[in-house]
């Protein structure tokens, strides 16, 4: 695909590795998803949509691409989650060592095992903030600890985890969901901002952000593996993320579970814009 290696379709001077502060890392992995397949097409669809996006952000009053955005080659591993996690983790660690701000594009959520680990290892005192319709707290799923449905169970072993937008779970997750006060259910937050400061208080100074796009309402983001009704809206999510970027040091993030539909590109565009907005907030807001 034409745009595969150029997020935002930037001219050469703004996508040189050495000069770039930001790295976009495509991780087109989809081996464990259970219903609608196609998350492996997500990164290319996001990158293609991004090339058709206007690159001045009105809200942040800036052109964040001028910080330099290098788009890396996609992670090749397609079958085994363990090998993919090892490869992706190594790639993320390399970029962090080179002082890059890493944004990973999924792929299914199992890629989070690698990105979360790499950031928790590289920065002190990191907490993980997950936006998702699903808690992903299963100890094991379909015989694997690396399944997308277990990604937050793995994260909890190495860092505090705060979860936002959850509205679907398995009975085996019931106790964890009821016991934890670090979960902000969609039913309680979809129409208000009362949770913003409570949520920020649960996080440490350094935060790794993982966004499963199914956190959004399927009315605005239908192209995902499991489109759960009752999701969050565009502006409430942005309002919170803007505040998060101001108050915390968000050390990196990933955006996962786009399952593109060739007939409707709105979801692809939303994902691209969300990433660009997050970068604008991170690098331009004072
Ligand atoms: Mn999910």
Structure description:
Helices cover 33% and strands 16% of the residues. With 286 residues, it is of the alpha/beta class. It has an 8-stranded parallel beta sheet with strand order 2-1-3-8-7-4-5-6, with helices on both faces. The N and C termini lie far apart (37 Å). The structure holds manganese (II) ion (MN). Manganese (II) ion (MN) is lined by residues 132-134, 212, 214, 257.
Task: Give a brief rundown of this model.
The protein contains 9 helices and 8 strands. The protein has one domain (7-284): Arginase, Chain A, CATH 3.40.800.10.
Keywords:
286 residues; binds manganese (II) ion
Strand order of the largest sheet: 2-1-3-8-7-4-5-6
Mean pLDDT: 94
Q: Please, what is the CATH homologous superfamily?
A: Ureohydrolase domain
* Helix/strand/pairing category: alpha/beta
CATH level-two architecture = 3-Layer(aba) Sandwich
CATH topology: Arginase, Chain A
Gyration radius, to the nearest Å?
17 Å
The biggest beta sheet is recorded as: 8 strands, parallel
Poorly predicted sequence stretches spanning 5 or more consecutive residues = none
């Amino acid at each position: 695909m034409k745009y595969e290696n150029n997020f935002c379709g930037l001219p050469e001077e703004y996508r040189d590795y050495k000069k770039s502060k930001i790295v976009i890392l495509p991780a087109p992995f989809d081996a464990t998803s259970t219903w609608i397949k196609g998350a492996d097409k997500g990164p290319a669809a996001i990158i293609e949509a991004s090339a058709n996006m206007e690159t001045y952000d009105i809200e942040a009053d800036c052109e964040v691409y001028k910080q330099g955005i290098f788009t890396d080659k996609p992670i090749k591993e397609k079958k085994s989650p363990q090998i993919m996690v090892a490869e992706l983790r190594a790639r993320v660690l390399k970029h962090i060592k080179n002082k890059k701000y890493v944004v990973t594009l999924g792929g299914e959520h199992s890629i989070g095992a690698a990105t979360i680990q790499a950031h928790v290892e590289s920065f002190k005192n990191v907490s993980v903030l997950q936006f998702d319709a699903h808690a992903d707290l299963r100890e094991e799923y379909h015989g694997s600890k690396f399944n997308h449905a277990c990604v937050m169970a793995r994260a909890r072993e190495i860092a505090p985890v705060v979860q936002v937008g959850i509205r679907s779970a398995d009975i085996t997750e019931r106790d964890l969901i009821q016991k934890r006060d670090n979960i902000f259910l969609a039913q309680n937050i979809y129409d208000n901002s009362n949770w913003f400061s409570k949520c920020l208080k649960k996080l440490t100074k350094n935060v790794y952000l993982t966004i499963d796009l199914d956190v959004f309402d399927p009315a605005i983001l239908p192209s995902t593996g499991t489109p759960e009704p009752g999701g969050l809206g565009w502006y409430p999510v942005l309002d919170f993320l803007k505040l998060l970027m101001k108050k915390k040091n968000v050390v990196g993030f990933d955006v996962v579970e786009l399952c593109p539909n060739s007939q409707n590109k709105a979801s692809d565009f939303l994902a691209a814009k969300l990433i660009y907005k997050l970068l604008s907030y991170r690098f331009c807001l004072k």
